[in-house]
Design goal:
The complex is a heterodimer of chains A (142) and B (169). Chain A is built from 3 helices and 7 strands. Chain A is an alpha+beta fold and 142 residues long. In chain A, the strands form 2 sheets. In chain A, strands 1-2-6-7 form a 4-stranded antiparallel sheet. Chain A has a 3-stranded antiparallel sheet with strand order 3-4-5. Chain A is elongated. Chain B has 169 residues and is mainly alpha-helical. A two-stranded parallel sheet of chain B has the order 1-2. Chain B is elongated, with a radius of gyration of 37 Å. Chain B starts with a helix and ends in a 17-residue tail after the last helix. The chains are: A alpha+beta (142), B mainly alpha (169).
Chain lengths: 142, 169
């Protein structure tokens, strides 16, 4: 085998590895978007006086259907609360300053997805649940 | 024979020495007034005179058994002086009204800021301070909830509500 044949085979081999790496990265991205549960992508629905919003920080950031969609959690020494924007509408509520609320809000930040409910008349958060599971691979990371 | 007698003598000396030394080595410890058990377990006793209604109110906040125990132990005394009862009730009512007024004022200042479409940090801090000064820190979230409703209903934009981060999530 001469030198030029060996060189071309080496270049082809390196190129193949490069293509494999690039395609795996691309598919990894699409795999992540595909595996996001609907609840994690950010959504607010009203039922009577109760508004319920779900989402996860990472999935809301990754989704592209609604570029203006975002979620914020605020935890201060006097109160805590959550703020979301979904389809151009603002949703927010404030919660009593108890350790349980603060801890759950803290957990919501890194969960696969959270679900918060509040009374639309008072703006007071009535419940906050955080969800995580082995099936939600890569979702809990910020 | 001579050895046996010597052993007997040594044994007798040992018995006598033991008899004499025993009381010395079993003396009671030197008493220290600072370690007096009576002083250690002594407690300061004080009592508070409360009306029956106040004791009932206290019983509603703490375990009834604890309240009963406090009354039985004399820590809480049911006042028989009607003047004192009336005075205490008046004081409690005054504090309740002061707290209520402070909350209404704080709420009003928030409403005014909502109407003027500008929740300022200073204004919000003033309202929070009113509640803090009257021991109502647990109600601060109600002010924030009021702002949340205003923003949710579109009366205020997130930016007007002071949510500066809302534009750049």
């Amino acid at each position: 085998m001469n030198h030029s044949a060996l060189l071309s085979k080496s270049i082809a081999f390196v190129f193949m590895i490069f293509c494999t790496a690039v395609s795996s990265l691309a598919f990894a991205g699409s795999d992540f978007v595909a595996q996001m549960p609907v609840e994690s992508r950010g959504k607010c629905t009203q039922s009577g006086d109760i508004m319920s919003c779900t989402g996860s920080f990472r999935a809301i950031r990754a989704q592209q259907a609604d570029p203006g969609r975002w979620a914020n959690v605020s935890i201060t020494n006097s109160s805590s609360g959550i703020y979301m924007q979904y389809s151009g509408v603002f949703y927010s509520c404030a919660a009593p300053n108890t350790q349980a609320w603060r801890e759950t809000f803290t957990a919501a930040i890194s969960s696969s997805y959270f679900m918060v409910s509040y009374n639309v008349n008072t703006g007071i958060c009535t419940s906050l649940s955080v969800y995580d599971g082995s099936q939600f691979r890569n979702l809990s990371a910020l | 024979m001579k050895q046996s007698a010597l052993t007997l003598i040594i044994l007798c000396i040992g018995l006598i020495a033991g008899y004499l030394v025993y009381p010395v080595i079993n003396l009671p410890p030197v008493s220290d007034s600072s370690l007096n058990p009576d002083r250690i377990i002594s407690t300061q006793h004080s009592s508070v005179e409360l009306s029956e209604a106040q004791i009932d109110d206290l019983a509603a906040r703490i375990a009834p058994a604890v309240a009963e125990h406090l009354v039985a132990s004399g820590a809480l005394v049911k006042s028989s002086d009607p003047q004192l009862v009336i005075k205490q009730q008046e004081t409690a009512e005054k504090i309740r009204i002061e707290k209520e007024m402070a909350f209404l004022q704080a709420q009003q200042s928030i409403d005014e800021m909502i109407l003027s479409k500008s929740i300022t940090e200073a204004g919000l801090n003033n309202a929070i301070q009113r509640l803090t000064e009257t021991g109502q820190e647990d109600k601060i979230y109600l002010l924030r909830a009021r702002i949340a409703v205003a923003v949710n209903n579109g009366e205020l934009t997130p930016k007007q509500a002071g949510f500066d981060w809302a534009d750049s999530p």
